[in-house]
Amino acid sequence: MTLTEIKQILRERNIRLTRSLGQNFLHDQNQIKRIADAAEIQPGEKVLEIGPGLGPLTRELLARKAQVKALEIDQRLIESLKVLFETSPNLTLEHVDALKLLKKEAFDWSDWKLAANLPYSVASPILVELALSKHAPRRMTATLQSEVVDRITSAHNTKSYGVLTLLIKAHFDSVDRFRIPATCFFPEPDVESACVTLARRPKPLLTDTAMITYVSLVKLAFSQRRKIVWKLLKQRWRSEQLVQAQKQLNLDPMVRAQAITFEQFVSLANFLTH
Ligand code: SAM
User: What residue owns the CA closest to ligand 1's atom 10?
Assistant: First the structure.
């Protein structure tokens, strides 16, 4: 979909874009192909697209013979998509707030992939909902603000490392990322963008029960980044249990959350799960 086509559809349909819905449309075919390549779309695969907008990525996914379920919040764009893709049997379009839907309904996404240029205002909660769902997608390729991609892919002892990193990392490995220049979107976003690909771990590292502990642990540990972790964890766990964990896992008694590795958080969650 070229910039001229995008402008033409918007003009013909008298659509004024809504900034709060993150309506920045991709018009660079190379970047669209790169996203679909990163998603490793194979014919017949089920692909969830959140925020299809005017459909540039949808078109590429359908060209690669994916079975696409596209969730779009804006009725005006749904109307346009219906006209554009009316004859496509491989597309299911839903007019819905994707975040609300994901929060409300537990769906089995385990044999699905996500491929999306996400609305930036709700990109992190959408990814977290999908990543933590009981049956998470096997691969997620999403365009987001670069700053959020940094948070997802960062290592311990860095400023970006935190709750988002660890919630996603519990079930996913980050396997690819690339920058998408602002000039590839209409209108150009104020922030830098990047596309990240996350692959679901072949085997979960934590049981369902340990996962509940892990989520509370990570959230509490980062609730005050500058504080010593053990002091924060006392709100939830007994002191003796924490001292035992600290010694057994050979962790620093003065450690802050930022210095604890993902593997150490996993061990700690396992230790604190009884
Ligand atoms: N995929 C298109 C593209 O690449 O050009 C559009 C991407 S645009 C960044 C984000 C899209 O998400 C917009 O079409 C917007 O209307 C839609 N959107 C925003 N919030 C949404 C939500 N909560 N649920 C579903 N779609 C949403």
Answer: 119
SS3 165: helix
Atom number in ligand 1 closest to CA 18: 16
The conformation of residue 123, written as its DSSP 8-state character, comes to H
Interstrand relation of 172-180 and 185-186 (parallel, antiparallel or unpaired): unpaired
- Give CA–CA dist 71/48, Å, rounded: 8
Backbone angles phi, psi at 202, to 5 degrees: -60, -35
Separation CA 195–CA 177 (nearest Å): 5
Tokens matching residue 231 = 């002091």
Q: Nearest-CA neighbor of 93 among 71, 75, 115, 67?
A: 71
Q: Measuring from atom 22 of ligand 1, which residue has the nearest CA?
A: 97
Q: Distance between CA atoms of 9 and 33, rounded to whole angstroms?
A: 22
> Closest residue (by CA) to atom 23 of ligand 1?
97
In terms of DSSP bridges, do strands 139-145 and 67-72 run parallel, antiparallel, or are they unpaired?
A: unpaired
Mean pLDDT, the chain, whole residue set? 96
Q: What is the pLDDT of residues 82-134, one digit of tens each?
A: 999 988 999 999 999 999 999 998 899 999 999 999 999 999 999 999 999 99
237-266 tens-digit pLDDT? 999 999 999 999 999 999 999 999 999 999
* pTM for this prediction: 0.96
Ligand 1 atom nearest to CA at 120:
9
H helices of the chain, in order, are 3-12, 29-38, 56-63, 75-84, 98-104, 123-132, 146-153, 163-169, 208-221, 229-233, 239-248, 262-272
